Amino acid sequence: MGGPSTPTDLKGEILDNDDFLVRWRRPGRPAGPLGGYMVSWKCPGAEEMSAITTENQLALKDLPNKGTNCTFLVKGFNLGPWDHQFVGDSAEFTFQLPERSPLSFFEDHDEDSPPPRA
């Protein structure tokens, strides 16, 4: 038993609540029972983060640095005898997070408090 092949069709999208959804298709060659996926992401100026999921998608909250390019990696893994993990190769893509518009900034602003300073 070895690691699965690379997940395919890796994509990302911004959801209505500003969460970011990463989704992919399962590897064409799972090479055994697929245990799940390791997802990691890195945005400039922030530390690398990671999560494990058994789904073909992962919703991420509060990504830092709007307006920057964040890199996402997804790799599948199999669980072998004695809980040994066989990890496959990573699929990778970069996504530019949109900047927050000035209008949405002021929509969140309380009218009774002073405006923010630049």
From TrEMBL:
**Superkingdom of this entry's organism?**
Eukaryota
List the InterPro entries.
Answer: FN3_dom (IPR003961), FN3_sf (IPR036116), Ig-like_fold (IPR013783)
TM annotation in the entry: none
Protein name per the record: Neural cell adhesion molecule l1
